[in-house]
Amino acid sequence: MLPRFGQDFEAELPSGSAVGHCCRCSRSEGVWQLQNLAAYGDSEDAWVYLGSCSLWVDIGEKESWNSVCIDADFLTALLDGAGQGGECVSLFHIHPRSMLAGNRIYPPAANDIYSLVNLKRILREKSDAEITAYVLDGEGVWTYETTDLFESSYFQNQRSWQRCCSASDLAKEQYANFMLDYCTLVEPATSDIALSQRMKIEAYILRSRALGIEVSYTPH
Ligand SMILES: [Zn+2]
User: Fold this and answer.
1) What is the reported pTM?
2) DSSP 183
3) Ligand 1: distance of its center to the CA of 51 in Å?
4) Does the first or last residue of the chain, that is N or C, have fewer Cβ atoms within 10 Å of its Cβ?
5) Tens-digit pLDDT profile for residues 125-168
6) How far is ligand 1, taken at its centre, from the CA of residue 103, in Å?
7) Which band of pLDDT confidence, cut at 50, 70 and 90, is reported for residue 169?
8) Which fold has domain 22-151+212-219?
9) Could you tell me the distance, in angstroms and rounded to a whole number, from the CA of residue 44 to the centre of ligand 1?
10) Distance 67 CA to ligand 1 centre (A)
């Protein structure tokens, strides 16, 4: 059993949250530790790295083998506490490799993409922080970003999606459209047994681009 990343360090963090382990180390050291969790762990988790203070903070909650929720309120409180304008926040979350068999690939899932665009919207409203997002799959790094095409197709005129129950009919319709397009156009690339792993990655990237999602993959 691997030690949980960050448990050995305590720092001043916003209170009243289920998240909040933190760790002060370099970006490359933190990525290395999280890749180990992705390679051998059994659940997803999410962390942010604040480059200005070399601080890693756990912002994942409700972790399971195939999903993790990101506490946006905690993240905005954290950025307020950091008190630095224009912070560049790197959001990392892990896809545990041991939970899926075969030569599948482990790219950002539909909900990862929707929660990123939602988080970007919340941060834009509450701070001037920029966010970049990564999935670590134990063997490489997926970088993903939504473009204007995505926002105009699936996120137009939406306030943050976080309060699902108060989402407008338009927001619900756009979300449903995205899930349908992702599941029919993009997702099949991740498990097509006719494709090699490399071809799956290329197909996933190309099909994502058609929906306004820019993805790249860098193996270690
Ligand atoms: Zn994910």
Assistant:
1) 0.84
2) I
3) 22
4) N
5) 777 788 999 999 988 999 999 999 999 999 887 776 555 556 67
6) 18
7) confident
8) Cytidine Deaminase; domain 2 (3.40.140)
9) 7
10) 6
